[in-house]
Amino acid sequence: MTLQRRTFLIGGLASAGVVLAGSTAATAVAYPFTLGVASGEPAADGFVIWTRLAPSPLNADGLGGMTSADAAVEWQVATDANFTQIAASGTVAATQAWAHSVHVTLTGLQPGREYWYRFRALGHISQVGRARTAPAVGSSPALTMLFTSCSHYEAGYFTAYRRMAEENPDLILHLGDYIYEGGAGSGVRTHQPSGEITSLANYRVRHALYKRDVDLQAAHAAAPWLVVWDDHEVENNYANLVRADNSPAGGDFAARRAAAYKAYYEHMPLRSAQAPSGSNLQLYRRLRWGSLATFHMLDTRQYRDDQACGDGTKLCPAADDPGRTLTGAAQESWLLDGLGQRLGTWDFLGQQVFFAQKLAAADGSKSMDSWDGYTANRGRIQAGWQARGNTPVVLTGDVHRHWASNIMDNYATQNKVIGTELVTTSVTSSGDGNAAETGTSSLNPHVKFYKNQRGYVRTVTTPAQMTVDFRVLDKVTVRDYPIKTAQSYVIQAGTPGLQAP
Ligand SMILES: [Fe+2]
């Protein structure tokens, strides 16, 4: 074991020395890869690799201890973890305008295989990340995909991220609330900056605080990610440019949202097509996984109408107004167009808020922040996918609980299952939870499963079926708990709905 490790270290450094010869001489700069490395957006011919130079990542100015000078960042992609076979390499400039983050979009790689990548800058070599290209169109190898959401730094340790890395997945989805915007509160560790974040500098420091976590870094280094945000990347329950509350008071919310979106881009392995423009950022997008699956990644925050009846959980006829939208008209038609293409066996919607109807009381009270607050938009999408012969699987975050539901054509009559919804619990948000708590109700017969513990969902998808394991940890306020499966289901291709395994 010692010999292997020694061989790896020497081989790695020697390889770097040969290939990267003539690069920036080592200087006395502190280690700049404090935020780890990441990959994302896999395609059949490449993916994005990301890092950010930040020798002092929590500096209050948000600049990570870097000066205004550009820094050359060399990168390598190899077909082996020892970097003996280099598939691609190059140099990119990290600039202060983007907080010295780099997003390298790789093309020309082989489909359906693993790659390893690393960076070198300021005389230091980064950690090694493992990525994977999507399979070629026409092929459908089994896909192990994990998804999670809601990783509040103070609410617990990121053990779920560590366990996700250990699953050796092909792909990881994060469905929103990757950071939380609130100031320092109570918990197992403490937010920095200490106040609610509203400026670009503060959003950068908050992202850096989260990215310093070694468990999170392990999950990013283990597999490519597909990310979409929810509300807390900006502010709780905001809707387009409408704030949910006035705390902290005042300020220009469009400018705040622009700062939050920019910091999000700077810290995520996204393509340059997702670089922000003013206070907007085009996040909804489609990704093909060979002929097996298509991921339709949605943004349910940036274009939505304000929550009806002042938000909250209530009886609110205005929620059914046909003019209301959660997706915006352009994203709705884009989604229906994509669901009509039937590019792969499976269509996955990666999105934020509870999709299926979920009545909170017999009088019809529902959550105004979820699709229940935008029922006409949901109805058009459900009818649209039925008209196109589709039976998608909706992947959801937000609610800090595991849930599983059959999506119904008509929730009142429970007439026909037309899709399936899998809701992941949180990484940490809401703390340890309660394994014994019950949550399903006779008000919602299509909702089959509920578990109030932290973790993620593991899926293994083939052309015939999808197996689903709801993975949980007994505690997140204590480090290093083991992961276990609370419940499993199977979904058969072409037959929507949850089945016993
Ligand atoms: Fe959350």
UniProtKB/TrEMBL annotation:
The keyword S-adenosyl-L-methionine does not apply. Keywords: Signal. Residues 1-21 form the signal peptide. SUPFAM superfamilies: Metallo-dependent phosphatases (SSF56300). InterPro entries: Metallo-depent_PP-like, PhoD-like_MPP, PhoD-like_sf, PhoD_N, Phospholipid_Metab_Enz, TAT_signal. Transmembrane segments: none annotated. Residues 145-470 form the PhoD-like phosphatase metallophosphatase domain. It comes from the Bacteria. CDD domains: MPP_PhoD (cd07389). Residues 35-133 form the Phospholipase D N-terminal domain. This is Alkaline phosphatase D. It comes from Actinokineospora terrae.
